[in-house]
Amino acid sequence: MELKKLSWATVVMESNGTSILFDPLGAPIKGQDRPLAAKLGEPLEPLVSLWTIKRPDAILVTHFHPDHFDYQSVLDSFGDDVQLYLPKESESYAAKCGFKNVIGVSPNEDFIVNHVKVSAFYSVDGFGSPQVSWIVNDGVHTIVHCGDTQWHGFWWRMEQQYGPIHVACLPVNGPILHVAGLKAQSSLPACLTPEEAVEAAKILSAEYLVPIHYGTFNNPPFYIEAENVVERLIQRGNELGVNIKILRPNESHFLGDTIKQSAK
User: Fold this and answer.
1) Do 174 and 196 contact (CB within 8 A), yes or no?
2) C-alpha 261, offset from chain centre
3) Tens of pLDDT along 105-136?
4) In the chain, fewer beta carbons within 10 Å around the N or the C end?
5) Metallo-beta-lactamase domain: from which residue to which, for each copy (predicted)?
6) CATH number of the domain within which 110 lies
7) Are 59 and 69 within 8 A, CB to CB?
8) Strand-pair category, 84-87 with 58-60
């Protein structure tokens, strides 16, 4: 299995000819001036275009926020008939975006993409939007992709139901947001902090934590990323014995080369 990080939380999994794309983002985010929109600002690094990858067999979207579901780039790159999975409550939204092959999925539902088993599991969005985590197993390795979840109490059940987990792709930038139109703002992080991500990976017994959702956006005072994200990840990883695998944009990790295989 090959795991490639593109930009932000966008990841591609390849296994024996099957390609699955998670949380596609391929262009700067539009519509940030709308009420209730998170203002992430312009990307601080070039975004990897979705044109650079082959058409995936399936696209898995954790939630419909534009930094995780860049629907226009998906339409432009892969067409309106690409197989798209996302939370059940967001099925109608994807259809309104122009997609014709949309399947809504709820936590604890499974489906098959060629030889790969995909499971939806629980996740908690920072602003209450419908969100799921994705667990993918190709018969040898299991990876999880957790969008931009906050801390929650489902980590133990995830490990029990789907372990052993070889790679956990977890958000790590613990941002503080000011979102215009909200009656009250929060001073708490809208997704996992570096330390929380390492704790989650430890509970999951993940062999590797691949950090996502950091380094691309920082737009004070509207979107303030946590400071020293990578340094804090490495420090806490060393303290808890969690292996941190940093992937730069367009960098791959070949699981078969470095991770012992499991019969489960």
Assistant:
1) yes
2) 23
3) 999 999 999 999 999 999 999 999 999 999 99
4) C
5) 20-214
6) 3.60.15.10
7) no
8) parallel
